[in-house]
């Protein structure tokens, strides 16, 4: 039976029988991998907690007909412990791995692996506010898939201008002439925050106020759900409650 080795991030696990688990991983070279970890739920398992979601491992696999088999796994980054201790970090990490799982079903690029790994490391280390990390990840992951939102020019006409209407279904900011009724108006600073999250410009992102972050988070969540065309279940657990008045919309 052929074997292969890959660095991989654990996305999710499912119970199998009395002592096994099915583990879904994102491999640096192979992309999506679904494999069985035999005996992992036994106290004598040599895998221990290495194959928990969010962890990075160096793993050896046997190739199977439908599911591969994990022969061994060595820890490269034990992020699950630090993330699991904080509910906010945990929910953000769940959104990230679920989105990565869906985005890499049919179109894997090594950049997806690097982006997810960087996001999980930042969450575990507390490098930035968790909500900013997950929003930046979502925008950049969607951009890798070809769905980067238009922020400088109208997504429909291509006209450059200070457009404030944001239409999720049309791909970003749009001019008033083509904006669908009810399109939200971007607050002052929202466009700059979206751009900074897309580019990883953390000083600008961290200087944003709570209301601007709330609006941008809601728009990113809606943008993600629309373009994936598949519900990201973990998004409902993120705290995206507006702190004051609702966003102004076009009448």
Describe the fold and architecture.
By secondary structure, this protein is α+β, with helices and mostly antiparallel strands. It folds into two domains: 76 residues, Beta Barrel (OB fold (Dihydrolipoamide Acetyltransferase, E2P)); 110 residues, no CATH class. It contains seven helices and seven strands. The strands form two sheets. A five-stranded mixed β-barrel has the order 1-2-3-5-4. Strand 4 and strand 5 form a beta hairpin. Helix 2 runs antiparallel to helix 3, helix 3 runs antiparallel to helix 4 and helix 4 runs parallel beside helix 7. The protein is elongated and about 65 Å long. The C terminus is likely disordered.
Beta content comes to: 15-25%
The SSE string, one letter per element, is: EEEEEHHHHEEHHH
Distance between the ends = 64 Å
Record the strand order, biggest sheet.
Answer: 1-2-3-5-4
- What structural class do helix, strand and pairing data support? alpha+beta
The largest sheet, given as strand count, sense and whether it forms a barrel, is: 5 strands, mixed, barrel
Number of helices: 7
Helix content, binned percent: 25-40%
Output mean pLDDT: 91
Indicate how many domains the architecture comprises. 2
Q: Please tell me how large the radius of gyration is.
A: 20 Å
Low-confidence stretches: 242-251
C-alpha geometry: elongated
* Secondary structure tally: strands: 7
